[in-house]
């Protein structure tokens, strides 16, 4: 690995400026903060995918693509005389120092749990947010948002004492869902289903399992097993749409036996 090279970063910034210049790329020149948002999200998910695959070559590439999005947004802001990449980095540096007083000023040992609690208290005291929860982006996917809400309020003591305390709540929510289901009131069914999901997310948090990752793994497992069914049907010259549910269930169970 090469040593840290500031010249490489400067060359990258200059390359972005060239692409945005009148002599640059028409596509790059027409982009705005809003038009780039889908790419920012896509690159973040591709980084996640490369980490899960444990593919360092892909991970390195996807981190570069994500970095490009940060540089791209910073360059657009610079052109509009709002801020530039240097200010982005300076702001980040100041924030890291401010939120790690145990390293840079107080010089005291803290556990990782204490560090997180400290971070949240400092964040609330030094930001314009009026609520502990106001810093959570509205655009977060619901599963991640539920996890972060539970995580944040728990740092202020608003939480179940243990995972065992959540199980009775889970049973309570299931009973309420059954009652709503029998009533055929769609609005109430939706509300109770949301309560079940929220409780499950909090249970997973107490078990130190990220529900997003757990669900992603289950979905991938389902896809693998369904692909197995499709391949088996193709091998037998059968059509998916014309195969009975009984045979599909048989192939599904077969996929489990073969550890697909």
Structure description:
With 260 residues, the chain is mainly α. The protein folds into 3 domains: 6-88, MazG-like (Helix Hairpins); 142-209, MazG-like (Helix Hairpins, Orthogonal Bundle), CATH 1.10.287; 213-257. Helix content is 73%, strand content 0%. The protein is built from 12 helices and no strands. Helix 9 (163-183) runs antiparallel to helix 10 (186-206) and helix 11 packs across helix 12. The mean pLDDT is 91.
Question: Main attributes?
Answer:
3 domains; extended; Helix Hairpins; single chain; mainly alpha; 260 residues
Give the second-level CATH assignment, the architecture of the largest domain. Orthogonal Bundle
Helix content: over 70%
Mean pLDDT: 91
Number of helices: 12
Give the name of the CATH superfamily of the largest domain: MazG-like
- What is the name of the CATH class of the largest domain? Mainly Alpha
Count of strand segments: 0
Shape: extended
**CATH topology descriptor of the largest domain:** Helix Hairpins
Topology pattern, helix = H, strand = E:
HHHHHHHHHHHH
Give the low-pLDDT segments: none
Outline the biggest β-sheet.
Answer: none
How many domains? The number is 3
Strand % is under 5%
């Amino acid at each position: 690995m090469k040593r840290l090279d500031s010249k490489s970063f400067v060359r990258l910034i200059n390359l972005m400026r060239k692409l945005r210049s009148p002599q640059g790329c028409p596509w790059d020149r027409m982009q705005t903060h809003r038009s780039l948002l889908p790419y920012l999200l896509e690159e973040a998910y591709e980084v996640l995918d490369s980490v899960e695959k444990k593919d360092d070559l892909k991970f390195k590439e996807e981190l570069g693509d994500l970095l490009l999005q940060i540089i791209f947004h910073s360059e657009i802001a610079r052109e509009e005389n709002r801020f530039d990449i240097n200010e982005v980095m300076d702001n980040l540096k100041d924030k890291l120092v401010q939120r790690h007083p145990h390293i840079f000023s107080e010089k005291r040992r803290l556990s990782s749990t204490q560090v997180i609690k400290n971070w949240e208290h400092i964040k609330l005291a030094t930001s314009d947010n009026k609520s502990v929860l106001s810093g959570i982006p509205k655009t977060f996917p619901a599963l991640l948002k539920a996890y972060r809400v539970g995580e944040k309020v728990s740092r202020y003591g608003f939480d179940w004492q243990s995972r065992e305390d959540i199980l009775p709540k889970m049973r309570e929510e299931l009973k309420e869902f059954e009652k709503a289901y029998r009533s055929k009131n769609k609005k109430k069914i939706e509300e109770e289903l949301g309560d079940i999901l929220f409780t499950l997310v909090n249970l997973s948090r107490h078990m130190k399992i990220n529900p997003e990752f757990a669900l992603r793994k289950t979905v991938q497992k389902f896809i693998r097993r369904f692909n197995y069914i499709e391949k088996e049907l193709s091998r037998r010259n059968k059509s998916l749409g014309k195969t009975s549910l009984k045979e599909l269930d048989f192939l599904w169970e077969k996929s489990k036996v073969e550890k697909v």
